[in-house]
Write a structure and sequence with these properties.
The radius of gyration is 20 Å and the shape is globular. It is about 25% helix and about 35% strand. It is of the alpha+beta class. It binds flavin mononucleotide.
Length: about 220
């Protein structure tokens, strides 16, 4: 089947895009309003887009015309946020934080989320997150009703048992992050496999071998 996006409602486009672009990582974002109230909310429109400079993007959609979500409003005001990654232990609290609490209610207080101070930012990180990224807003792109907040990463905090500091090798096998699937679905990251990458010379050698042996593999 083929779908023409010009003929679809935004809700239907959302269903299709978030059905095929899976799994999506989850940014459990802490931000702070001008009164210092700490907000926490998850966003699966999220990824890293480069390392030089180190950049992440999150996409908080507006609740309606000129009604940004608290996270977007806070970042516009303070230019600071922390991306906390979500593991299996944190996933239920992450889901509760997506409740549409009014702006004056701090999810951190309502849910009793433990926080830890950031190094560079006023806004704290979540103490129970396995890893957190301290970010400042570089730019916010608004295309129609789609908002993309681009942040530069300044610090990574990661639990000691999750990294080999000599090699900067993250123990993703111990990290147990969750990803978002369609609707209310999630996925664990325990099912890993590896593929070796070939150089072009290795590719040519492989093709020559296949031609010589008539192998299909
Ligand atoms: C796993 C998960 C992922 C979500 N991803 C997004 C997202 O990418 N963009 C968005 O606007 N809302 C997303 N939401 C909904 C927001 O978390 C929710 O609207 C929240 O109340 C926003 O909080 P805030 O107003 O405090 O910023 C997601 C919810 C869940 C549970």
């Amino acid at each position: 089947m083929t779908f023409d996006f010009t003929d679809l409602t935004p809700g239907d486009r959302y269903k299709l895009l978030t059905g095929v672009i899976v799994p999506r990582p989850i940014a459990f974002v802490t931000s702070q309003d001008e009164q210092g109230r700490v907000n926490a909310a998850p966003f699966s429109y999220f990824n890293t887009m480069g390392a030089d400079p180190p950049v992440v993007v999150i996409g908080p959609g507006d609740r309606g015309p000129d009604r940004p979500k608290d996270t977007a409003r806070n970042i516009a005001a303070t230019r600071q946020f922390v991306v906390n990654l979500v593991d299996e232990a944190l996933v239920e609290r992450m889901n509760l934080a997506a409740t549409d609490f009014p702006p004056e209610v701090s999810e951190v207080d309502a849910l009793g989320l433990a926080t830890a101070p950031s190094v560079r930012l006023d806004v704290p990180r979540l103490a129970d997150a396995p890893a957190s990224l301290e970010c400042t807003e570089v730019v916010t792109l608004t295309i129609g009703h789609t908002r993309m907040i681009v942040g530069q990463v300044h610090y990574l905090h990661i639990r000691d048992d999750l990294i080999d500091p000599e090699r900067l090798y993250v123990r993703t096998d111990r990290l147990h992050l969750v990803g978002r699937m369609q609707g209310h679905g999630y996925v664990r990251t325990r099912d890993r496999f590896e593929l070796e990458r070939l150089s072009y010379a290795e590719w040519l050698a492989r093709e020559a071998e296949r031609a010589r042996t008539g192998s299909e593999s």
